[in-house]
Amino acid sequence: MRLTTKGLLLIAIPAIFELALLSGLVKAQSDAAQAERWAIHSEDVLRQTTAILDPVLGESVALRGAVLVNDAHFVTPVAVWMDVDRRIDQLAELVADNPAQVERVVAVRQEVQAYRQWSDRVQDMLHSGRRRDVLERFRDLAQSDVLDRFRAQVVAFQSEERRLDTVRSSAAEAARERQQWLVVAAVLGSLLFVALSVGLFTRGVRGRLVLLTDNAGRLASNEPLAPIAPGRDEIARLDLTLHDTSRRLLEAERIQARFQADLARRTGELARINETLRQQTQENEMFIYSVSHDLRAPLVNLQGFSKELIRACDELRAAVRESSLAAETRQRIERVVDEDIGEALHYLQTAVLRASHIIDALLRLSRVGRVEYRQQKVEVRDIVPRVIDAMQGSIRARSAHVSVDELPAVWGDPTALEQVFANLIGNAVNYLDPSREGRIEIGTTPAPPGVHSLRIFYVRDNGLGIPAVALPRLFNAFQRLHGNVAAGEGIGLALVRRVVERHGGRVWAESKEGVGTTFYLSLPEAEKHSVAQSADAVVVSQAPQVAQSRGHREAHYLRALD
Fold first, then answer.
1. Plot region of 204 (φ>0 → left; ψ -120 to 50 → alpha; else → beta)
2. pTM greater than 0.85
């Protein structure tokens, strides 16, 4: 016989016995609980009956006292009868499962109504001064007392309820005794069947289980397993499974060794690639710096010689005026000097200044990747108002309204993040639509499901907006969409992207031309980083020292914008 079949039989026989005892125990417990509830129910019914009887008797006493003293102003409050009627309704609900008691409740209600009518007539006669008629009614009451009928109905109801309570109490006591006997039988029977099952199951199985346990220990210790135990039952199958598992573990160890070797090889390749990228990045930065440095000398020469040409033109213009040349010739020379040469020199100086700005932008863009950040907890709710305060001049000039929601703390470099928000807010201010009132909103939005370590901020405006075709290249360097609206080189958003990505986040935008633009950026949440990280961070500032006055601070921010 298979172990499962034997085990099922050994379990099924005592289980059936225990289920029978358990069902009887549950039934007895249910009967006892039901009897207890009925006993409590009877107490509630009797209490409710008393609550009906007492107000009516009290009213009767009060009415008789008023008759004795001839109180013509005595009036039974309507609230008394309303309360009695409400309690009768509650009593009817309590005994709704007993038709006989429901009929008695109906009779009680009728007697209460009859007594109330009698009481109302007596009070009417008192109010009209018919004391003799009142006394006559009380003499008639001696033969057929309506109050006694009401009391008799209540007493009959209570007697029946007490009888039911006695029956239910007896049933509860019997259920409790039956429950106790079943508990004793269940305990003794369970002990007996457990002892019998243990004896039958361990006989003839213990030795094979010992061998199986030894093989399991050998498998855990990575030692060779003993031969498979003979048999065709579950123990033999389990032992066979242990041997198969041992073989698979050995194979897995060989595969793991190959994987580790491959991982070490790939790690080395990745390290070499990273080193190559680092060198390429360093070479690119050195190239940008060298090119920028080499370009400045000819730009300075161009700027200087253009100024020399301007002075030469001024001297030539003065010499022409003082010369004896004909008026027509003198005017032609002055027109050439003022218009052709002057315009050419103006374009030359503008191009030199533009090239100088582009070189500065390249240097700023290259420095973003080299600067080491001072990582710490940054209160965004402090730096955003500071940025807005520094830009009040530009904000007032455009009649814009800026609103700031609650902003949580993040983890990063405070100076770098201040520059990020300065770029985004300044960008929103510069590209507001002058044809309507400007609105700028700074706040946060919930992170996507599954992302718990990042805070998502947004800067929203109702400005000119960005065409859909321009959104993919929005964060590329030297991209300008509204060049005639604000001055700049087009690297502000590129700087924002590099700073945010170095903080472990990302930046993106949603826009509709003519409606407005919303810039989103995700930054690491401050609570996810330990205080020790800020203590070990290298204290290096990314940007120049921020000026303390509002005018200096705004100028500092505007230099970083497009």
1. left
2. no
